[in-house]
Amino acid sequence: MGRETAATVDDRLLNAWQQTLPEIVEPGSGVSVRKDDGDPHALRITVDVAGRTGYSFDFKCTYLDEREVRVDLIDAEKDGRHLDERNEHVQSLIEREVRHIHECAQALAVLTNP
Question: What is this structure's pTM?
Answer without folding.
Answer: 0.93
